[in-house]
Amino acid sequence: MGDYEDHGFATRVIHEGQGHNPHGALATPIYMTSTFCFDSVEDGMKKFSKEKPGFVYGRSGNPTTAALEAKCAAIEGGEAAMAASSGMGAISSVFMSLLKAGDHIIAGDTLYGGSDFVAHHLPDYGIQVSRVDTCDSTKVKAAMKPNTKLIYVESMLNPTLKINDIEALAKIAHGQGAMLVVDNTFTPPPMCFPIQLGADISLHSTTKYLNGHGDIIGGIVIAPAEKMVDIRGIGLTKICGCPASPMNSWLVLRGMKTLDLRVRKHCENAMAVAKWLEAQESVASVFYPGLPSHPQHELSKRQFADGLFGGMVSFEMKKPNGMSRFEATERVMNSLKLFSVAVSLGDPDSLAEFPAGMTHLVVPQEEREAVGITDGLIRLSCGLEEAKDLCNDLRQAFSGIN
Ligand code: LCS
User: Fold this and answer.
1) pLDDT at residue number 18
2) Model-level pTM?
3) Neighbours of 121 (CB within 10 A)
């Protein structure tokens, strides 16, 4: 899809969806308006009934947001896209429009805490949820039921950085007429293209790499046009009521102009940090798909483009003498100077967070520990600084426990 299909990714991410506007402005204007005037009653009625294209009201669409949607659909190879006011808004719009009481879904056993929370609540609406280690295809196959409507996974698990095999999961889902929905937030283009690997729907928290500057909250869903009718018309517009604001859509559009450069640099820095961590005495384990020690390194090489393995690195400290694991973790994190102690990811600034007590606090402790979210796990979002400075920051933080 898109007007620049035969161009490289770096070109496409700049030019796709750019469109034209009445004054020829190169940058997409910000249409800061709640409503849109009709030429006549007839014109308004035709636009409402979709007999005529056009915008009617800001909750269902806006030209600035439409430019972002066109860009995202084009670069991920999907038919249609819909921007939401947050990643959670994007996820909830999908669940609330495509599922009904009596349906069954398979959700990965490790998901971002907010998504995990939603999966825990779907049974309140009569939707059955099986939590499965989706990185193991045989377990997914065994969990499929005649009423399974969709499989919901993260391309790279937050925060354990295990990898889902998108091609294998798509085959299982499609074998029984179900859909595969992939949260691609941790592995943005040009790294991973879930729809090209067989997923039906790809979505992102645009708060992260797509915007890339740590100054908005947003989400996007890329889906077949036929599914998008309900995702937008029911999920986003009627039930969740969470459209992206024109200002935030514009900021994501601006951020995406440099997506290619940024993602490559985030990945380069994360690889350097992961290698450095793996060589440290005080580190028990490093989780990074780019390391040969990662159990799914081969799958990662196949699934992710251009030798890119993501900007996130998770690791566990060894338990030092006379200190609990948590104390060591806390001391290291509190000593960081360049890494800010903060949740979120994909910002220019490097961030360090403690999943068990922050992003995944809402996941019951037993479930957390069963998937490896322990009291010793630190998650790093490697920013765009110099890699050697990031390693030196970790070095000085480790010196407090050695
Ligand atoms: N999907 C994933 C994989 C996420 O990591 C997040 C947020 C969301 C969806 C939700 O997006 P939001 O509504 O926040 O835009 N993840 C966060 C994290 O790991 N730290 O802080 C937020």
Assistant:
1) 83
2) 0.98
3) 13
